[in-house]
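Hi there,

I know you've been waiting on this one. I reran it after we fixed the sequence typo, so this is the corrected version. Both the input and the resulting structure follow.
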Amino acid sequence: MQTVMHKADTRGHANHGWLNSYHTFSFANYYNPDRMNFGVLRVLNDDTVSGGMGFGQHPHDNMEIISIPLSGDLEHQDSMGNTTVIQSGDIQVMSAGTGVTHSEYNKNKDEEVKFLQIWIFPNKRNVTPRYDQITLNPADRKNKLQQIVSPSKDDAGVWVHQNAWFNMTRLDKSHALQYKLNDATNNGVYAFILKGNVTINGQSLHERDGLGIWDVTTLDIHADSDTELLLMEVPMKVRG
């Protein structure tokens, strides 16, 4: 088993007034050569956007972009003609492929919106851009894993151009469960703790800590308090 720990207070931080963002990996003005990525997981941003504010139109290409709202309402518009609102319980994916522009704004002027912005390198370049979002019931992740991302259109969650699986769970204190990797030969798992305290394969983690694990077949997860976490299983090798 190999691991890398990223404590919450070691993340990059940028407060632009309207945007308060924490970067697990190098992003924008935060550069750390030891924190470039975890396998194909390139960006994990923990963003809070003030009421009525947001990101204007900007371009992306050849990246799988996943947004997970934690609270509030985030309005999305893109060059593919989509105008949508995502909120807690929704999962959004955009395959940038050959190129797309989009904007994201807090739809409400009187409350913040909090969301995770995640980028993963795709296993196919220059695909036709696409957009999708689904609504899941958070109650279905109580004391069990709820899959939210997979490589297959026919599997649970949104799908991506990558051999990646994401799961979320909400655990009561003292509850334990096991995660079995889908591809233990090639993949690792990055665990991000949204709330509470948890022990994963003997490592103690707290709110907003991140732990990357590879060269394992399973993760043993024990909730030391009521907790919520995101598990991102991704290939460890980035292929050009």
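Quick highlight: The chain has a mean pLDDT of 96.

Best,
R. S.
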